[in-house]
Amino acid sequence: MRIKSQKDFWSGLMFMAVGIAFAWGATNYTIGEGARMGPGYFPLLLGILLTALGGFIVFEAMVVETEDGEPIGKWAWKPLGFIIGSNILFGLLLGGLPRFGIPAMGLIVAIYGLTFIAAMAGDEFKWKEVIILATVLAIGSYLAFIVLLNLQFQVWPTFITG
């Protein structure tokens, strides 16, 4: 068989690899059963579902004709760097790095940092839109994690809250 869509073929393989890794990692936890689910039940099912989805995408890439074979383009290094960097920055701002004297800045500052750095990955950067998005994400995250789920972690920087 010939690959008729390179993009779909390789993305399907990536889905399958991640799904297998999740399912395999879930076996380290108690799986349980449908009525009494253990901590590994959901990751196992999610891994199986992701693997099946990847298999379907790979199959479709081998069967469905495309115009030009949908070749894979060059790596988009700029967006990749900004997205990965924004996630690293989020972790650093949320928890800090006490070993190096970097204090935790809290959830709100971390979300603003994540949003601003990730927005630089695109072709356009509009300050007003990014500020609105960061504010909506910060309010939504505060409501979801602090108010509704009652999770206990720092919301504001220490120099503000004392």
What labels would you give this structure?
about 160 residues; mainly alpha
Record the SSE blueprint.
Elements lengths: L5 H21 L14 H23 L13 H19 L11 H13 L7 H22 L9 H4 L1
Helix pairs in contact: 1-2, 3-4, 4-5
What does this molecule look like?
It is a single chain. This protein has helices at residues 6-26, 41-63, 77-95, 107-119, 127-148, 158-161. With 162 residues, it is mostly helical. α1 packs antiparallel against α2 (41-63), α3 (77-95) packs antiparallel against α4 (107-119) and α4 runs antiparallel to α5. The longest helix has 23 residues, at 41-63. The N and C termini lie far apart (65 Å).
Give a nutshell description of this structure.
By secondary structure, the chain is an all-alpha fold.
Roughly what is the average pLDDT, rounded to an integer?
91
Strand content: under 5%
Distance between the termini: 65 Å
Query: Number of domains in the coordinates?
Result: 2
H and E order: HHHHHH
Helix content: 55-70%
Work out the number of β strands.
0
Radius of gyration: 21 Å
